[in-house]
Input
Amino acid sequence: MWQRFTERSRRVVFFAQEEAGRWGENHVATEHLLLGLVRENDSVAARVLDRIGVSLGRIRSEVERQVTRGERRLGQDMQLAPKAKRVIDLAYDEARRLNNNYIGSEHLLLGLIREEEGLAGRVLNKLGVDLERTRREVVQLQDEVRPLQEQVVQLPDMQERQDAQSPNYQSFVERVQDVVKRLFTLNPKLAQLSDAELVRTLTGETMDQIQTAKAAGSDAENVKTQPGIGDLGVLRYADGERAVETAVDEHSLLELVAILRARDYYGYRGLVADGRVCLLPSGTGAKILHPAHLDLHRAVSQAVKEVSGRYVRILDGDQEGQTAWIVPEAFHCTGPDTTPFPPLISDVEQDCDTE
Output
Protein backbone atom coordinates (compact mmCIF):
# COMPACT_ATOMS: atom_id res chain seq x y z
CA MET A 1 0.00 0.00 0.00
CA TRP A 2 2.87 2.37 0.77
CA GLN A 3 5.16 1.79 -2.21
CA ARG A 4 3.94 4.90 -4.06
CA PHE A 5 4.26 7.16 -1.02
CA THR A 6 7.00 9.77 -1.15
CA GLU A 7 9.54 9.98 1.67
CA ARG A 8 7.75 13.03 3.02
CA SER A 9 4.26 11.48 2.95
CA ARG A 10 5.60 8.39 4.72
CA ARG A 11 6.93 10.67 7.43
CA VAL A 12 3.45 12.16 7.75
CA VAL A 13 2.11 8.67 8.51
CA PHE A 14 4.94 8.02 10.99
CA PHE A 15 4.18 11.31 12.70
CA ALA A 16 0.47 10.43 12.72
CA GLN A 17 1.26 7.20 14.56
CA GLU A 18 3.26 9.14 17.10
CA GLU A 19 0.46 11.69 17.53
CA ALA A 20 -2.03 8.87 18.10
CA GLY A 21 0.22 7.41 20.79
CA ARG A 22 0.66 10.85 22.36
CA TRP A 23 -3.12 11.14 22.63
CA GLY A 24 -3.48 7.67 24.13
CA GLU A 25 -4.91 5.91 21.09
CA ASN A 26 -4.13 2.52 19.56
CA HIS A 27 -5.39 3.55 16.14
CA VAL A 28 -4.58 6.36 13.74
CA ALA A 29 -7.63 8.52 13.03
CA THR A 30 -8.03 11.36 10.52
CA GLU A 31 -7.13 13.96 13.16
CA HIS A 32 -3.80 12.20 13.80
CA LEU A 33 -3.06 12.21 10.05
CA LEU A 34 -3.76 15.94 10.00
CA LEU A 35 -1.52 16.52 13.02
CA GLY A 36 1.21 14.54 11.26
CA LEU A 37 0.68 16.57 8.09
CA VAL A 38 1.13 19.96 9.78
CA ARG A 39 4.43 18.80 11.31
CA GLU A 40 5.90 18.72 7.78
CA ASN A 41 6.15 22.49 7.47
CA ASP A 42 8.15 22.48 4.21
CA SER A 43 5.87 20.16 2.23
CA VAL A 44 3.70 20.84 -0.80
CA ALA A 45 0.63 20.58 1.43
CA ALA A 46 2.08 23.23 3.77
CA ARG A 47 2.72 25.60 0.86
CA VAL A 48 -0.80 25.01 -0.46
CA LEU A 49 -2.31 25.82 2.94
CA ASP A 50 -0.14 28.93 3.15
CA ARG A 51 -1.49 30.11 -0.22
CA ILE A 52 -5.02 29.54 1.01
CA GLY A 53 -4.23 31.61 4.09
CA VAL A 54 -4.50 28.96 6.81
CA SER A 55 -1.48 28.54 9.09
CA LEU A 56 -0.25 25.16 10.28
CA GLY A 57 -0.28 26.38 13.87
CA ARG A 58 -3.93 27.36 13.60
CA ILE A 59 -4.83 23.90 12.28
CA ARG A 60 -2.94 22.18 15.10
CA SER A 61 -4.57 24.37 17.74
CA GLU A 62 -8.06 23.66 16.38
CA VAL A 63 -7.48 19.90 16.21
CA GLU A 64 -6.01 19.75 19.70
CA ARG A 65 -8.97 21.73 21.00
CA GLN A 66 -11.42 19.12 19.70
CA VAL A 67 -9.53 15.82 19.96
CA THR A 68 -10.22 13.57 22.94
CA ARG A 69 -7.66 11.53 24.86
CA GLY A 70 -7.93 7.75 24.75
CA GLU A 71 -6.71 5.00 27.04
CA ARG A 72 -4.06 3.24 25.03
CA ARG A 73 -3.20 -0.32 25.99
CA LEU A 74 0.51 -0.97 25.59
CA GLY A 75 1.59 -3.77 23.31
CA GLN A 76 -1.14 -3.31 20.72
CA ASP A 77 -0.19 -2.57 17.11
CA MET A 78 -0.99 0.87 15.74
CA GLN A 79 -3.63 0.44 13.02
CA LEU A 80 -5.44 2.85 10.72
CA ALA A 81 -9.01 3.60 11.73
CA PRO A 82 -11.68 3.06 8.99
CA LYS A 83 -11.96 6.76 8.15
CA ALA A 84 -8.16 7.09 8.01
CA LYS A 85 -8.03 4.13 5.60
CA ARG A 86 -10.59 5.92 3.45
CA VAL A 87 -8.35 9.03 3.47
CA ILE A 88 -5.52 6.91 2.04
CA ASP A 89 -7.85 5.53 -0.64
CA LEU A 90 -9.00 9.06 -1.49
CA ALA A 91 -5.37 10.24 -1.67
CA TYR A 92 -4.71 7.53 -4.29
CA ASP A 93 -7.80 8.72 -6.18
CA GLU A 94 -6.58 12.34 -6.09
CA ALA A 95 -3.17 11.29 -7.41
CA ARG A 96 -4.93 9.47 -10.27
CA ARG A 97 -7.02 12.56 -11.04
CA LEU A 98 -3.86 14.68 -11.24
CA ASN A 99 -1.98 12.06 -13.33
CA ASN A 100 0.65 11.71 -10.57
CA ASN A 101 2.37 8.34 -10.13
CA TYR A 102 3.17 9.05 -6.46
CA ILE A 103 1.31 9.88 -3.25
CA GLY A 104 2.55 13.13 -1.74
CA SER A 105 1.49 15.33 1.15
CA GLU A 106 -0.80 17.28 -1.19
CA HIS A 107 -2.77 14.13 -2.03
CA LEU A 108 -3.13 13.31 1.68
CA LEU A 109 -4.44 16.83 2.28
CA LEU A 110 -7.03 16.42 -0.47
CA GLY A 111 -8.03 13.04 0.96
CA LEU A 112 -8.50 14.55 4.41
CA ILE A 113 -10.73 17.27 2.98
CA ARG A 114 -12.86 14.74 1.07
CA GLU A 115 -13.41 12.57 4.17
CA GLU A 116 -15.91 15.05 5.55
CA GLU A 117 -17.13 12.81 8.37
CA GLY A 118 -13.70 12.69 10.01
CA LEU A 119 -12.59 15.24 12.59
CA ALA A 120 -9.81 16.42 10.26
CA GLY A 121 -12.29 17.13 7.47
CA ARG A 122 -14.56 19.06 9.81
CA VAL A 123 -11.65 21.15 11.11
CA LEU A 124 -10.40 21.97 7.60
CA ASN A 125 -13.93 22.87 6.49
CA LYS A 126 -14.36 25.14 9.53
CA LEU A 127 -11.11 26.93 8.69
CA GLY A 128 -12.23 27.52 5.11
CA VAL A 129 -10.09 24.88 3.36
CA ASP A 130 -12.44 23.72 0.60
CA LEU A 131 -11.77 20.94 -1.90
CA GLU A 132 -11.95 22.82 -5.21
CA ARG A 133 -9.76 25.73 -4.08
CA THR A 134 -7.18 23.29 -2.69
CA ARG A 135 -7.16 21.27 -5.90
CA ARG A 136 -6.54 24.42 -7.94
CA GLU A 137 -3.66 25.45 -5.69
CA VAL A 138 -2.10 21.96 -5.91
CA VAL A 139 -2.31 21.98 -9.72
CA GLN A 140 -0.87 25.49 -9.91
CA LEU A 141 2.02 24.64 -7.60
CA GLN A 142 2.81 21.47 -9.54
CA ASP A 143 2.70 23.42 -12.81
CA GLU A 144 5.18 25.93 -11.36
CA VAL A 145 7.61 23.31 -10.09
CA ARG A 146 7.50 20.81 -12.97
CA PRO A 147 9.12 23.05 -15.62
CA LEU A 148 11.90 23.92 -13.18
CA GLN A 149 12.69 20.25 -12.61
CA GLU A 150 12.70 19.61 -16.37
CA GLN A 151 15.02 22.55 -17.03
CA VAL A 152 17.53 21.55 -14.35
CA VAL A 153 18.10 18.10 -15.89
CA GLN A 154 18.61 19.46 -19.44
CA LEU A 155 22.37 19.91 -19.13
CA PRO A 156 24.69 20.54 -22.07
CA ASP A 157 27.20 17.83 -22.86
CA MET A 158 30.57 17.73 -21.07
CA GLN A 159 32.56 19.28 -23.92
CA GLU A 160 30.22 22.27 -24.08
CA ARG A 161 30.37 22.73 -20.31
CA GLN A 162 34.17 22.84 -20.50
CA ASP A 163 34.02 25.61 -23.11
CA ALA A 164 32.79 28.59 -21.11
CA GLN A 165 32.52 30.69 -24.27
CA SER A 166 30.22 28.34 -26.18
CA PRO A 167 26.68 29.59 -26.84
CA ASN A 168 25.22 26.39 -25.38
CA TYR A 169 27.16 26.84 -22.15
CA GLN A 170 26.06 30.46 -21.79
CA SER A 171 22.46 29.44 -22.49
CA PHE A 172 22.77 26.77 -19.81
CA VAL A 173 24.09 29.27 -17.24
CA GLU A 174 21.27 31.71 -17.99
CA ARG A 175 18.71 28.92 -17.73
CA VAL A 176 20.04 27.79 -14.35
CA GLN A 177 20.04 31.38 -13.08
CA ASP A 178 16.42 31.76 -14.11
CA VAL A 179 15.51 28.46 -12.45
CA VAL A 180 17.25 29.42 -9.21
CA LYS A 181 15.48 32.80 -9.10
CA ARG A 182 12.11 31.13 -9.42
CA LEU A 183 13.03 28.46 -6.86
CA PHE A 184 13.89 31.21 -4.35
CA THR A 185 10.49 32.75 -5.01
CA LEU A 186 8.77 29.40 -4.33
CA ASN A 187 10.87 28.54 -1.29
CA PRO A 188 12.63 31.48 0.45
CA LYS A 189 14.36 29.05 2.86
CA LEU A 190 16.80 28.20 0.06
CA ALA A 191 18.50 31.53 0.77
CA GLN A 192 19.78 30.05 4.04
CA LEU A 193 21.79 27.31 2.25
CA SER A 194 25.45 27.39 1.34
CA ASP A 195 26.52 26.97 -2.29
CA ALA A 196 27.28 23.27 -1.77
CA GLU A 197 23.93 22.67 -0.06
CA LEU A 198 22.08 24.53 -2.81
CA VAL A 199 23.72 22.36 -5.48
CA ARG A 200 22.64 19.22 -3.62
CA THR A 201 19.10 20.58 -3.33
CA LEU A 202 18.93 21.23 -7.09
CA THR A 203 20.09 17.66 -7.74
CA GLY A 204 17.37 16.13 -5.61
CA GLU A 205 18.46 16.17 -1.97
CA THR A 206 15.79 17.36 0.45
CA MET A 207 16.03 20.28 2.85
CA ASP A 208 15.31 17.80 5.67
CA GLN A 209 18.37 15.70 4.83
CA ILE A 210 20.62 18.76 4.80
CA GLN A 211 19.24 20.16 8.06
CA THR A 212 19.52 16.76 9.75
CA ALA A 213 23.19 16.50 8.86
CA LYS A 214 23.90 20.07 9.97
CA ALA A 215 22.17 19.43 13.30
CA ALA A 216 24.31 16.34 13.83
CA GLY A 217 27.45 18.42 13.37
CA SER A 218 28.37 16.94 10.00
CA ASP A 219 30.20 18.80 7.28
CA ALA A 220 27.92 19.82 4.41
CA GLU A 221 29.78 17.51 2.05
CA ASN A 222 29.27 14.43 4.25
CA VAL A 223 25.48 14.26 4.41
CA LYS A 224 25.38 10.87 2.69
CA THR A 225 27.37 9.26 5.53
CA GLN A 226 24.52 9.83 7.99
CA PRO A 227 22.08 6.95 8.62
CA GLY A 228 18.94 7.44 6.58
CA ILE A 229 15.35 6.29 6.63
CA GLY A 230 15.12 2.50 6.53
CA ASP A 231 18.69 1.84 7.73
CA LEU A 232 19.22 -0.94 10.26
CA GLY A 233 21.38 -0.76 13.36
CA VAL A 234 21.76 -1.52 17.04
CA LEU A 235 21.17 0.65 20.07
CA ARG A 236 24.26 1.15 22.18
CA TYR A 237 26.48 3.85 23.61
CA ALA A 238 30.22 4.07 23.10
CA ASP A 239 31.01 2.13 26.26
CA GLY A 240 28.83 -0.76 25.02
CA GLU A 241 27.46 -1.47 28.51
CA ARG A 242 25.04 1.27 29.54
CA ALA A 243 21.32 0.73 28.85
CA VAL A 244 19.89 2.90 26.08
CA GLU A 245 17.10 5.35 26.90
CA THR A 246 14.17 5.48 24.46
CA ALA A 247 11.56 8.24 24.70
CA VAL A 248 7.89 7.84 23.78
CA ASP A 249 7.71 11.23 21.99
CA GLU A 250 9.76 14.29 21.06
CA HIS A 251 8.89 16.24 24.19
CA SER A 252 10.05 13.36 26.38
CA LEU A 253 13.30 13.17 24.39
CA LEU A 254 13.93 16.88 24.93
CA GLU A 255 13.27 16.53 28.64
CA LEU A 256 15.54 13.46 28.78
CA VAL A 257 18.42 15.36 27.13
CA ALA A 258 17.98 18.27 29.56
CA ILE A 259 17.99 15.87 32.51
CA LEU A 260 21.08 14.04 31.26
CA ARG A 261 22.96 17.32 30.82
CA ALA A 262 21.98 18.43 34.30
CA ARG A 263 22.72 14.97 35.79
CA ASP A 264 19.30 15.21 37.46
CA TYR A 265 18.82 11.83 39.15
CA TYR A 266 15.28 12.51 40.40
CA GLY A 267 14.13 13.83 37.03
CA TYR A 268 15.65 10.76 35.32
CA ARG A 269 13.93 8.39 37.73
CA GLY A 270 10.65 10.23 37.26
CA LEU A 271 10.73 9.88 33.45
CA VAL A 272 11.32 6.14 33.75
CA ALA A 273 8.66 5.70 36.45
CA ASP A 274 6.09 7.57 34.34
CA GLY A 275 6.75 5.31 31.36
CA ARG A 276 7.87 8.25 29.19
CA VAL A 277 11.37 6.77 28.95
CA CYS A 278 12.19 3.05 28.69
CA LEU A 279 15.59 1.47 29.20
CA LEU A 280 16.61 -1.10 26.59
CA PRO A 281 19.61 -3.44 26.73
CA SER A 282 22.68 -2.44 24.78
CA GLY A 283 22.66 -4.20 21.42
CA THR A 284 18.90 -4.07 20.82
CA GLY A 285 18.11 -4.03 17.10
CA ALA A 286 16.36 -1.03 15.55
CA LYS A 287 15.50 0.61 12.23
CA ILE A 288 15.52 4.33 11.40
CA LEU A 289 12.05 5.63 10.55
CA HIS A 290 12.94 9.31 10.56
CA PRO A 291 16.18 11.19 11.32
CA ALA A 292 14.90 14.45 12.78
CA HIS A 293 16.18 17.79 13.99
CA LEU A 294 13.86 18.84 16.80
CA ASP A 295 13.22 22.52 17.46
CA LEU A 296 10.31 22.74 19.88
CA HIS A 297 9.33 26.16 21.18
CA ARG A 298 7.25 24.50 23.91
CA ALA A 299 10.25 22.63 25.28
CA VAL A 300 9.86 21.59 28.89
CA SER A 301 13.28 22.94 29.76
CA GLN A 302 14.88 26.15 28.59
CA ALA A 303 18.19 24.33 28.93
CA VAL A 304 17.41 22.49 25.70
CA LYS A 305 15.85 24.46 22.86
CA GLU A 306 16.78 22.11 20.07
CA VAL A 307 18.29 18.65 19.75
CA SER A 308 18.89 16.05 17.10
CA GLY A 309 16.96 12.83 17.47
CA ARG A 310 16.15 9.64 15.61
CA TYR A 311 12.71 8.06 15.36
CA VAL A 312 13.20 4.28 15.30
CA ARG A 313 11.32 0.99 15.23
CA ILE A 314 12.50 -1.51 17.87
CA LEU A 315 13.17 -4.86 16.20
CA ASP A 316 13.69 -7.26 19.11
CA GLY A 317 13.31 -7.70 22.86
CA ASP A 318 10.31 -6.84 25.03
CA GLN A 319 9.60 -3.67 23.03
CA GLU A 320 9.70 -5.37 19.61
CA GLY A 321 7.51 -3.56 17.09
CA GLN A 322 7.21 -0.38 19.17
CA THR A 323 8.48 3.01 18.04
CA ALA A 324 10.63 5.38 20.06
CA TRP A 325 12.83 8.48 19.95
CA ILE A 326 16.55 8.21 20.72
CA VAL A 327 19.57 10.50 20.68
CA PRO A 328 21.73 10.01 17.53
CA GLU A 329 24.78 8.73 19.40
CA ALA A 330 22.76 5.75 20.66
CA PHE A 331 22.23 4.38 17.13
CA HIS A 332 25.01 2.44 15.40
CA CYS A 333 24.15 1.80 11.76
CA THR A 334 24.82 -1.66 10.31
CA GLY A 335 23.57 -0.89 6.80
CA PRO A 336 20.41 -0.57 4.72
CA ASP A 337 17.51 -3.01 5.03
CA THR A 338 17.71 -5.23 1.93
CA THR A 339 14.61 -7.27 2.77
CA PRO A 340 12.16 -7.20 -0.19
CA PHE A 341 9.39 -4.66 0.42
CA PRO A 342 6.44 -4.55 0.40
CA PRO A 343 6.14 -8.16 1.61
CA LEU A 344 4.04 -10.71 -0.27
CA ILE A 345 0.40 -10.89 0.81
CA SER A 346 0.87 -14.56 1.67
CA ASP A 347 3.74 -13.69 4.03
CA VAL A 348 1.68 -11.01 5.77
CA GLU A 349 -1.28 -13.37 6.20
CA GLN A 350 1.02 -16.06 7.58
CA ASP A 351 2.49 -13.62 10.11
CA CYS A 352 -1.02 -12.59 11.19
CA ASP A 353 -2.08 -16.22 11.61
CA THR A 354 0.86 -16.95 13.94
CA GLU A 355 0.12 -14.03 16.25
Residues 131-153 form the longest helix (23 residues). Strands lie at 27-28, 79-80, 231-235, 244-247, 277-280, 284-294, 307-314, 323-326, 331-336. The radius of gyration is 22 Å.
